Amino acid sequence: MTILNIGNEAFNSTEVAEKVQNDINFLLARIDHLRQQPNPNPVVLHTYQEMLESRQAVLEWLVHDQAPILTAAHNGG
Questions:
Q1: Rounded-to-integer distance, Cα 13 and Cα 30, Å
Q2: What is residue 63's predicted lDDT score, i.e. its pLDDT?
Q3: What sign for the dihedral angle of Cα 21, 25, 28, 30?
Q4: Which residues lie across from 3 on neighbouring strands?
Q5: Three-state DSSP class for 64?
Q6: Would you tell me how many other CB atoms lie within 10 Å of the CB of residue 31?
Q7: What is the pLDDT of residue 14?
Q8: How high is the pLDDT of residue 65?
Q9: Residue 1's pLDDT is what?
């Protein structure tokens, strides 16, 4: 765990990473659902894809040196 200081607030990096992972899971499900539609809206699909890529980059940054911690937290460990 690392403490992230944002402004005057401190956050547990593991908790933030879990929240970002939840966002990623949600976006993956939404993208999958949209792609299954007969005529998916390309603008919405593109927006969700960009949001997904952004969150994946944030997650990668958050867990750069603590992958075992996130893996254990993500797997319920």
A1: 26
A2: 83
A3: negative
A4: 12
A5: coil
A6: 17
A7: 87
A8: 62
A9: 62
Q: Find, among 51, 11, 8, the residue nearest to 29 by Cα.
A: 51
* Closest-CA residue to 62 (of 3, 17, 6, 15): 17
Q: Give the separation between CA 62 and CA 73, rounded to whole angstroms.
A: 14
Could you tell me the pTM of the whole model?
0.75
Low-confidence ranges of the chain (pLDDT < 50): 67, 69-73, 76-77
Place of tokens 């993208």: 31
Place of tokens 């994946």: 56
Spell out the long-range contacts of 50-59 with Cβ–Cβ below 8 A and sequence spacing 24 or more.
51/23, 51/27, 52/24, 52/27, 52/28, 55/20, 55/23, 55/24, 55/27, 56/24, 58/20, 59/17, 59/20, 59/21, 59/24
